[in-house]
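Sorry, explain these tokens?

***
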Amino acid sequence: MRKPRIFQPIDLTASPLTAGALLQLDDDAANHVGRVLRMQVGQALQLFNGDGNNYDATLVQVDKRQLQVRIDAVISNHNEAPVAIHLGQGISRGERMDFVLQKSVELGVSAITPLFTERCGVKLAAERLDKKQQQWQKIVIAACEQSGRSVVPLVHQPQSLSSWLASLPNALRLTLDPYAATPLQQHVVAAQRIQLLIGPEGGLSDSEVRQANAHEFTPVRLGPRVLRTETAALAALSVIQYQFGDLA
């Protein structure tokens, strides 16, 4: 039977976890283990905190005040993709954005930046923006729990497309265009870092396409059909991972 996988944030003030160490779960983890899963003393689970390790553990205390576990083993997790993919995703309405975040994590993306574009149709005040970013990060963590990843991709602060383009380090840069001359499969070459730009519902405007081209984003197409934004992102990630990632 598969052990429940639970995210436990790193305590920067504590020593690194080792076998035999006792650990009190934080509120979110304790709520999930105690109230949702209703686990009891003696049951096994697996923790991860984003450092690339899995921590096999056993519940040793369960009460209303706290849940405490004993670390039984520290196991390196080597299931990260060999290519680091930073997804710049035009923000979509409702559950479509949540879906893209969840599935892109399953496909091995290493970072995600939600982008405000001319046609995204989503406006958020500063307070709502912070809450939305936290919500998106929780979706990413849940996807890591489900998919077995022990490195948690960062959801960056949502920003304008122009700000994102101006801040990027060197990498292979690709953007999808259903009318591009080169198919994605033919263009993808060996690279350790890729920045993938996906437009929102309605796509990027002509001026945004020119901005991306000015920042060395190469337009590529996925096929003869025009895909929805959430489909395009996941299809492109799948092709890239198949070409030189870890999907086979």
Notes: The longest strand covers residues 53-62. The chain has a mean pLDDT of 91. The radius of gyration is 20 Å. The chain has two domains: 5-76, 84-244.
